[in-house]
Amino acid sequence: MESKDGARETISEESTVITKNEWTFFNPAQKFNRDISIEVVKECFKDRASIRVLDAMSATGLRGIRYLKEIGNSIVYLNDISQSSVDTIRSNVLLNGIEDAEYFGSDLQGIKESGNARANVVKSDCNVLMTSLPCFFDVIDIDPFGSCSEYIDSALRAIRHKGILCLTATDKGVLCSNERKCLIKYSTSIMKGMGMNEVPLRTIVSLVSRQASKFDCSVEPVMSLSIDFYVRIFLRIVRRNPRSVVERNSHVLMCVCHNLAEIRNGQREIDNRCSNCSRRMRLCGPFWNGPLHDVKVVQGVLGGMNGGNKRLLGILRYLEQEIPTMFYYEIPRLCSLLGISTIKQSRLMHALANMGYQVSYTHSELNAIKTNAPIASINKVLILSGAGDQERMEELGVEFNGNEGVKALESIEFFKGLLKSGMGPLPLPRKH
């Protein structure tokens, strides 16, 4: 929300106010990003007396000041490489009535020796800052313009055992469909058009897990979200069990018919002929093959909500019911490949669940499902539904309604109309 205080223009978000000028970068589309970050950090460290939070690219200080004001046990380090941004941060800290503040400039050694003021403003390249403070922060929040890949190594050095690494990537187009750039930036081979909004999540978690293993660390996904034009991922970094990276990353054979075949590390024999359509499949990956969310944390955040933020509530409910299978199936795409009219999502879910398969919605795509059913079974259901052959349906035991588990999912209010904000990225402001 924007307002004028005399000659000064301000922007307010929740209880935080920042000044607005021509070089202020503020994107209201990222409010959800900040909202969910507050809730995840609050839930993960609710039993800790104090935590150190690094807002690595603070810009105006909005995100870091919200951490300070909304998480009572936080000590926040607001960093930016730009002197004008640092001046703005200092001004906004005072504007929000935070007097327990310290300014370090580029004195990184002084941070280690400080008395831990609640707000600590730093001017540094974030990679230099993180590399200079090994195992120092409980939370590192990295929210760049573009890719997060170049900051991961430094962040892994600076994060403490069981700390939370919060990553944003706004180059979702690269992660979804630019096969060459994705390989260059994230060391993963993708296939355009396959599970587009989940591929970025499994790509980034895989990359971080592989980088973490070099530091004798492993990762535990807390929440992984594909929202609007960006992805937001929360990872718990555990300073042990680096060998888990072998079991938790896989390559996947992908086919244009949307068949998938997971290839585990160490698997000796690989047949790249598609079992569904007999075409040659394409080897993609590596991808994270485990769960993308910690359901206990999701439920903990849900339990602490008062229901006011309907968009956040709905997306958390999506995460709570998502099954951990790799990728999802877009119903219109499958029907188009089969040359039939699109069927209702609920009919497909009931039929597959009645056949004994797991099914769920996905927050990544409204008209898609996640399931452990093979593509042959999915196609069979789609073809039978399109043909309307009741006798054949009964003969094969396919029922398109009556599954209690799916009925329970259908009864949940997901606020589907709020899943997408309709807002996109903004250009960076003029440099000051």
Automatic annotation (TrEMBL):
Alphabetic keyword roster: Methyltransferase, RNA-binding, S-adenosyl-L-methionine, Transferase, tRNA processing, tRNA-binding
Family, per entry: Belongs to the class I-like SAM-binding methyltransferase superfamily. Trm1 family.
Group of enzyme by EC: transferase
EC number: 2.1.1.216
PROSITE patterns assigned to the protein according to its UniProt record, in alphabetical order: SAM_MT_TRM1
Name of the protein in its database record: tRNA (guanine(26)-N(2))-dimethyltransferase
GO biological process: tRNA N2-guanine methylation
GO molecular function ontology, one term from the record: tRNA (guanine(26)-N2)-dimethyltransferase activity
Highest taxon listed in the record's lineage: Eukaryota
